[in-house]
Amino acid sequence: MKQETKYQIEIVAPKHRHMSNWDMFATWIGANANNGTWYVGGVLAACGLLTALKVIVASSTLSYLCLSLVGFMGYKTGASTMSLIRGSFGVRGSYVPSFVNLTIYIGWTAVNTFIAATSVSYLLHDIIGWPVYGQPGGAKGLIMGVVVMSILHFLSVSVGQRSVQIVERIGIILVILFVLWESVVVFKTVTFSQLLSWQAPAKLHMTAGAGMDTLAAFNLAWVIAGADFTRFTRKRSGATKMPFLGAFTGVFWFAFIGLAATMSIAITSGTYDPNNSDPSTIASRLGLGVLALLVIILTSMTANAVNLLAAGSALSNIFPKIRLRPALWAVTAIATLVTLIPFAIGSFLAAFTAFLDYIGMVLGPMIAVMLIDYYWRHHQNYDVNELASSKGQYWYAHGVNWIALGCWVLGVAIYLGLKRLPFVANVTGATFIDMVIIGFIYMGLMRIFYPMKTKSA
């Protein structure tokens, strides 16, 4: 008889849950009130103001409803997202989404680090006269910025999950003050009617559908980290309402200010260049000074505290013998190297756009499978002990649910096909349509191949 194998899983008991509703709100507003969101807002400026605002509201609402659903899973079980995904993909099958998760959060860490490193290069220019990144000799300032940010990240993750709370509590106050300051400066420069009437050049115009997919890729990346944090809260509202409100507030506020600031620069200078939508360049052009650059650096730390914890959790799920803290050190080191990729290829925007395309392609169907499995198939009831067992109901075929993996691959193909349809590409985007289609396909196939046993009375 085959001996049962136990796979590592960490469950947070209610007595060890110490995050309040305010902590949860601050975590998720801090996750989105950052440089990456600002940059995405600048990219969405190519849609025009009204279309961009509609995209932000629609895409964020749908994405963060999914975040609340995953957040509830973490609250109810005490398990991380990558442990919970074993229920749908299988104990061993979860290694695939864990690897995807790992690459995404390392990528987001690199994105935020690169933008913060640009701020460091501006600081070095103001303090000691080094050329800023983009000018001859500016590479050394950027590389120094990467080194500085990586040291700060190593210090942060060494403290562990508590450091997330500390950084978020301090950061959220400065973020709010900074964005208010930025808003005042922008609307002193241009009027709302000027923003409303401005349009990007035809060759740079972005459709609503492209905008929906761009922002969905940005937002859905947080969904697969949802349970990693909500398992630390005692209240259901802290696991469902606070992530939604915090994430939505952060993304709307900072994407809007990135959108408005980028448009204001385009209006006053007569030139729109999405490559220059990063907050450091805009803050410098608006004359916000050294303090603004320091806040940009801090907001990078608040976002990356979440990114690195999620990446470390994914690495621990793939390699159960690696404890969380060494895993956090490892992903921080890898992210430092990945940060240099845009520098190597010569365009941050090109690297960022390719990264978003990758996220949108792989995350939508994965999240759809996970949510359908928990809420429809298992009626919000996973046996967390069996999530770590080689003999339980989540073992499927040799530890892999091939139907879930097959639906995920099919979802990637459907996503690519949908983007070729004019109405989808121009109006709705492919991401959420793809998620609905894959949800129904997974539901039907699981009913055929893995019918749930009904309990006898």
From TrEMBL:
Domain of life, per UniProt, equals: Bacteria
Where does it mainly reside? membrane
Q: Where in the cell is it found?
A: Membrane
Keyword field contains Iron = no
| Alphabetized CDD domains for the sequence | SLC-NCS1sbd_CobB-like
Membrane topology term reads: Multi-pass membrane protein
| Residues passing through the membrane, by range | 38-56, 62-78, 99-122, 142-160, 172-195, 244-267, 287-315, 327-352, 358-376, 396-417, 423-445
- Which Gene3D superfamilies does the UniProt entry name for this protein? Hydantoin permease
- What Pfam families would the database entry show? Transp_cyt_pur (PF02133)
Identify the keywords attached in UniProt to this record, alphabetized: Membrane, Transmembrane, Transmembrane helix, Transport
* Recorded family membership: Belongs to the purine-cytosine permease (2.A.39) family.
Q: What protein name applies here? A: Cytosine permease
